[in-house]
Amino acid sequence: MKKIAAAIKIFLFLTIITGIVYPLFIMGIAQFFFAEKANGSLIYKDNKVVGSVLIGQQFDSVIYFSSRPSAVLYNPLPSGGSNYGLTDSKLKDKVLERKKDFIADNDLNIETDIPSEMLFASASGLDPHISPLAALLQVNRIAKARKFEEKEKKRLVEIIDSLSEKPQWLCLGEKRVNVLWLNLEVDKIK
Known about the structure:
Helices cover 46% and strands 7% of the residues. By secondary structure, it is mostly helical. The protein folds into 2 domains: 1-39; 42-187, no CATH class. The radius of gyration is 23 Å and the shape is elongated.
C-alpha cells in the first residue's frame, strides 16, 4: 500500500510540474520575449484581425493578388498537401488546369513560364508567400480591375519590390512576398 501511495504522490507531483508549471513557465517566456509570434503573428486592419503573417488565405477577387493553391482550401486545422505522387495523372491534370487558369485570369501569353508555386499546392496547404515573379505576373490584371493608370501600376511594382523578403539567413529558400501584406498595401493606393 505504501508503494501505491508513493506512486500516486509522484504521479501528482510530476503532473503538476509537467502539466501546469512547465507550460506556464514556457508560455510566460514566449509572451515576454516573442509576444507577436506567440499570439499567432496576427495582422490587424481598423482594429480587426484580417489574417496572420504565417497562414495563407484565399483571395478570389480580381482586384487582389492570388495566393498559391491550397490542397486544404486554406483551412489550418487539417493542414497538409494533396499527397499526389509525381507520376499521378491527377497531379498532372491539376497543374495543367491551374496553369491554364492562371494564364487566362492574368491575360498572359500561352508560352509564359508560370512560377511553380502558382501551379503546385504547398506541403502544408497554408503557405502565405509567392515569388515576386508570380506577383509581377498579376500586376496587369489588378491594375485593369482597379482601373489604375500607369502611375498606380508602377506603384504596384514598387510595392512588390519593397515587400519582397530575402531568403532566410540569406541562404534558405528564395525571395518571396507575403500575399496578405501585398493586398493590404494595394488597398492603400488611391
